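Entry 14. Ran structure prediction on the chain below.
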Amino acid sequence: MKRIALGVCYEGTPWLGWQSQAGGNTVQDVLEQALGRFTAQPVSTICAGRTDTGVHALNQVVHLDTTVERSLESWVRGLNALLPDSVAVQWAREVPEDFHARFSAQGRHYIYLLRQHRVRSPLLQGRVAWVFRPLELSLMQQAAQHLVGEHDFSAFRSSQCQAASPVRTMTQIQIQQQGDFFLFRFSANAFLHHMIRNLMGMLVYIGQGRQPPSWVLHLLAQRDRRLSAPTFEASGLYLAGVDYPAHFDLPTSDPDDLLYELSGLRFAKAAENK
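Output, structure tokens:
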């Protein structure tokens, strides 16, 4: 028995999220179906983080156990030949048995793409979120800094969240603007169910001047989801990457490169804006 790790990229619009459901039509369902055909045996997968309906992934990390002998390149090309166009394996690695896609993860990174314009673009539908009211970048940046560090994020978790604790450590939030487009980067040790979409709802309210940046502190202190803004849409959200201990030697992807492929947006790299 060997353990294989896969890096999976998917466009989430056609799927009911990552996690397998009785009716199918999830990313896990189609990936495990392809794995079953590729290995000629049932295969179960474990992922780094379950994404919701309509949420995308640039580098979702998955592991599986198998007795099948295949070259690493065969895992990539063979599976991609069996997967729908909206899902593709980017890389494959054999990993030690103590590797776990979820529990070995040390940090997770998400990006959110938002366009502010008076008219929606059908060409960006499902890939980039949209608001028609003007947004003030500096207000959202001020608000975001209140979220960095260890906090109880109860005000930003779904009522269906199954996490044992609402406490998470946000290591970084960056917000950039280029023309009509805003790019949000979130990094944390882990995220709660709907946490980023709930944070986005709050940040958009603040960016539109409907609440001051200090509202963040009030919501964190109150720990009441009912007091915050509505959950924002899923379409602009991407799981960008997952951090693992260096000795596992897993490939990483640069979200900027993939964003260029996605929409041609030219955002400066985060390091250049520090």
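DSSP finds six helices and ten strands in the chain. Will compare against last week's run tomorrow.
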